[in-house]
Description:
By secondary structure, the protein is α/β, with parallel strands linked by helices. 35% of the residues lie in helices and 26% in strands.
Amino acid sequence: MAEAADFQGTSPSPARRWLLRTGALIAGAPLLAGLLQLSAAPDALAAPKAAPADATGTNTVAVSLDSLSPSAPTDGDTVTVSGTVTNRGKQTITDAHVGLRVGSAPLTTRSSIDSAAKRDGFDQFVDGTEVGGKYVEKFSKLASGVAQPFTISVPVKELDLGADGVYQLGVSLSGQTSAARYDQILGIQRTFLPWHPDEADTRTKTTYLWPLISTSHLTAETGPGERQTPTFRNDDLTKEISAGGRLEQMLSLGKDLDVTWVIDPDLLASVVAMTESYSVRSGSTTVPGRSQAVANAWLADLETAVQGKEVVALPFADPDLASLAQNGKAVTGSLSRLKDATDVAADTVENILHVEPNTEFAWPVNGAVDPSIIKVATSAGADKVIARSDSLQENRGLPYTPTAARPIGGGTTAVVADAQLSTAFQGDMRKAESSTLAVQRFLAQSLMTNLQTDRQRSIVIAPQRMPSASQAQRMAQALTTLQGGTWSQFQDLSAAAEAKPDPNASTRIPSASAYPKSLRKQALPKSAFEEIHGTQSDLDRFKVILNRQSRVVTPFGRTMDREMSTSWRGDAADARAYRDGVQSYLDTLTSQVRLIEKSETKLSGRSATIPVTVQNNLVQGVDNLTLRLTSQLPKRLKIGDDDFDEQSIDISGGHSESVKFTTNAEANGKVDVVAQLYTKDGQKYGSPVVFTVSVTEITPTVMLVIAGGVLLLVLAGFRMYTQRKRAAARQAAEGASQDESADRNSPGEEANTEAASVVHTDGVVHTDEGDSSAEPVADAPEHPSDPAKDTASENTDRSGTGERVDR
């Protein structure tokens, strides 16, 4: 009757059409039951020849629905459905055709949409009758394993849609097999058709988050020189922002949509780093990056796209709030790092995109929350937390989806995203069938949400953080339809957070035990935060000696933010390797300021200077360092006037400095001496250098030997003098000639001559009477010069074995 009315050019009211359809179903029920009984008998008789168990009945043919347009038709539209049918059975199918079926009545709840999507088999009462007529595509036969394409176009009026709502649309294949020569449903695929041709009296305010987030790409390593060329882990970011890449698709699709942009400032900083000279790690080496043009173009397009739109800036590098709350908050410095990442976010986005971002929102992974996550999320200044309805669930039996904003105490608002809509495109969207079904189901849920009540509400949709290119395309397709539809209107995230809360909506934060185990397993462990803290401590000790701290503090600080990123979830091994790489590079830098190893040193004499060389292979100069030299046996060897002495160090980049310490020997033997660098706050810097000083001559003994030798010389001289004087007197008495001889040899000169003649190179003293007293003559002690700083050219050679110190 309804079909006749349509052919006559009349159109019954929706209510009348529903009554007619219901009456027809009731009247036809007995007849349909009889037909089903008749069809059962041939099936039983043909059982031995039936298709395999995995391809029988409605499972015999796979029906793939690859496209449906328009996704949300209105009056006067023609619905076109395309796809393929594949015979999965072993028997050839004959007299087959593909047709469309509209459910007998619109679905009434959001849960009924989920149930319909999971239903298998064929039910005449639920799946409805076939449109039939000329709106089918016929196949004379379908051979086993062969896929055949189909396209069916049907005017909307032929679908006999009634009241506004969500209808189940089935695409079925009917045919015969050699085992059952009668028409039967051999395959069916279902989707949903949202039907709301007229403007809704009350539109749902919808907020869709459009995330621009990526993994961590930059390392802490930078090149020498003023430009500090950054180094990337790999070239993946180039792929993402190039034509067809994930981030290029997010940008090109998002610029035409009514969305709220959610941006990780680290992504912007990384792309900016690509606009100039940069390097890419390739194995153990680096190669020059060559994607400057691509990076500049992507940034320029993004700056244009976000003008006039709301931009929400996440903390730098998108730190994992749940991991911090569960495993990191007890580790010193972790929460302060979150605060720093939040503070730098706004400046980064504003400087690059020239828009003022909103930094009031925190977004835990998957919107899963518990009290500790809420506390950590708001500790850095955010007062709004993006949660999700499968975490903060309704417990009051509401028959509708409440407004997203929920006050949860302490001046904090939970913005609860709708879980079903938020997860609509998380599957593999590369297949046409999967993407088509996902889009239709998303639109169906959206329309059903609007039809739940006449009260206007605000809903928020927070998709996955890093959608693939195909997922982004399906998201954009659904949003484009939604924007052109009749039941939804766009609203930015800030407005959604400020909407009047529903007094009946749940505001109870779930306990920590309710946090999903699957997410807890992916969280960063406590050891990760301890490693980050260790790296920070090493950086703090290193930076105090630098003349230009920002060259090191800035890249390392941002890199440690990246070590806390949400993007490491599910990739623990790569996260650990990244942390190890950061620590290793910091160790490499700190080792560039070091003490040069010394070999055993010989010391003779009362005092001497010991040089210790400090080398600086950094580009910049270092200061605020003290070099301390300590004697392990001060009773044998003193450094200065005590067991140790220390001097300040100030070395230019690429130079070495030799620092001299005065030592005083007290006893024979070997002494271990320790050289150690210290920072100005008394912390040890680098590894100590331990070397041995061998004291071979002791001061008191040397002085006794010298004194004895001098005394012998004086006595010998005095004896020779008296003997010469007596001889001269005798010669004077004998005659004038002897007097003249005595005059030519005065006593003083004679003593000197004699003295000189008795001291030989063998170190033995001889007298003129032939006495040979074997008294050794020691070398006179040499006084050391005053120690002075010695700035030498860089030399890393080890000291020679048994070197003698400067004296």
